[in-house]
Amino acid sequence: MATLLEKTQTLISANLHAMLDKALQANSLAVLDEYIRQAQNSLDGLEDAAATVGGQVKTLKRKMDEFEKKVQELDAQVDMLLQRGKEDLAVAAQRKLNNTREMAQQYREQYERQQQEYKQLLDARLKLEAKLTEIRQERQQLQALLELAKAKEVTTQTLRSLDDLAGVGDADIARIAEGIRARLDKASAQSEMRASRLDEQMDQLLEIDEVQMQLEARKRRLGIGAASDGPVESADQERADRLR
Length: 244
Prior knowledge:
Structural class: mainly alpha
Low-confidence stretches: 227-232
Helix content: over 70%
Oligomer: single chain
Mean pLDDT: 77
């Protein structure tokens, strides 16, 4: 019984804050879970021990009451025998009274010790129950803190990863972008060259057409070649006159 009480007192007097710090440092609730397991086992043991001691207390109390009642009866018998002048019987009754009184005293002492033990067990049980309730509540809070810490660690790791990625591949991206710009510049230059050649071709065509019309106008003026139909000839004539 002393071992059980000693173990219980150790659990009751455990430094809760130190345990919480240890659990936080280890990022694990295993420390508190082990404490809860031991406390629950001790509580079960205390309840069983308290029931056993409580039964013994009741038994000792009954025995004590029985012997104390016998003491009263024997004491009355001794007085009665003395009053009747029966000395020999009174001596025997007195001896029996002494033995009974001694047994009653022993039962009383045992009863008082067991009663004190029973009260200590009940007190330890109440304290351990309170401690167990406290540690379970602290475990819930600690679990929430650990989950928050893990979430923050994930966030921190993500931000660290982003920081590590910052600048990685910038040169490659710049090189690709530069290549694309170069292709765009080349395409623009080719387009400009083609447009320029087209302009030159159009200019040449227009120049040839203009010279041809000038020659046709001279032929008509000189009466060289056949006459054309009216509307077309008039249009050609007007154009030739403008060019002149």
